[in-house]
Amino acid sequence: MSEILSGLSQAGAMLLYVLEYGQGVIPPVLLAGVIYLAASILRNRKRGLRVPPVRKGAMLLFICYCAGLAALTLTPPNLWFVLEDGLRWGLWPEPAWWARLLGQGGFDFEPALVSLLLGRESFWGWGDVIDVWNILLFVPMGFLPPLLWRQFASWRGLILGVGVSLGIELLQPIIGRSCDIDDLLANAAGAAIGLGLCLLLGRLAPALVRKAREKVRPAQNSPSEG
What is the pTM of this model? Predict the structure, then answer.
């Protein structure tokens, strides 16, 4: 019982850490959204195009999500805490700190299930919080592309999610993070859940999905599905 309570305490602390760290990506997400909206408005006015509102909203979500995903996974560990301390208190790390990050990441190819079976790890720990977080993190990657583009509303959508996750994992050791097989598996599960939700939405609200896939068209033309 004490082990479970200790694990729950660890999991709670890790969840708070993840949520606090996630706040740091708000500025990149907002910046990406503003840039997309400004570029979209200028382009469409110049070319006389009309983007259906549902598609524009879905594209905005996808752009912001991609920016947030990159800010969370393709930046050095604790970068947002470092920037916050620097901007708020002027506590900037020495140049050597940044240099030490490059190429210092690790690799972990042993799934957590194997560690559990071998008694090296227990449930209710920080790893479970990270796995849940990594699943949730990739649900939009499985949901938004098939919502926007019909060709991803199949196994291609799952391949896209796995491919993006694999690319991220292979790049992370370069910036001081670790390449972890559990992250890849959790991301793949999240992408599969997102794809399933999109396919379910297509059955429950097909008109909404059709609107999200409408092609950009001249303002005076009638809508056409893409």
Answer: 0.79
